[in-house]
Structure formats: structure tokens, C-alpha cells
């Protein structure tokens, strides 16, 4: 199966209108979350925002947290922390460090 690795979730192909329908958020709310650096759509050559399924999930999570009273800067901090945990460079460096530690002990 070509998509069994879940890579389809990160492909930015969804328009803001479709994201609005999927999440129940207005286009204005989605653009506001982008302004607050909570979500990072890609732009087509003509400037149209494109989102991924992962972005849709993140937007729903953001909306739920805001509804619970969490502030946008707190959400941004958490998203950044989470992103660093799964950053391939960080993971690779961590694995290499572990291998070096095991080799020299």
C-alpha cells in the first residue's frame, strides 16, 4: 500500500474552505490561528493556503484548548515542544548520541 506509512497526513493539499467545513471553524478563525503562529499552511504559486490532514487535527485541538481557556501563547509553546520531540534531526541526533554512549561505556 502506497499510503500505509501515514505520509498522506502531512501532504498540504486541502483548501481553507474545506478545512473550515471539516473543523467547523470559520476561515477568519483559521487565518487568525496562522497569524498567532499556531498553524503553518503552505502557499500555492497563486497565494492560496493549503493545509494537511495533520493541520486539520491541530486546528481542532487548538479550538478545543481555546474553548477551555488556554491562551494562544501557551498553545504555541506546547506545539513547538511537541514539534521538537518529533523533529527528525532531534530524533537522529538522540539516536546517534545513544549509540556513541553505548559504544564508549
UniProtKB/TrEMBL annotation:
UniProt domain HTH merR-type: residue ranges: 13-81
Protein name: MerR family transcriptional regulator
InterPro entries listed in its UniProt record: DNA-bd_dom_put_sf, MerR-type_HTH_dom, MerR_fam
SUPFAM superfamilies, per the entry: Putative DNA-binding domain
Single GO MF annotation: DNA-binding transcription factor activity
UniProt keyword terms in alphabetical order: DNA-binding, Repressor, Transcription, Transcription regulation
Lineage top rank: taxon: Bacteria
Pfam families according to UniProt: MerR_1
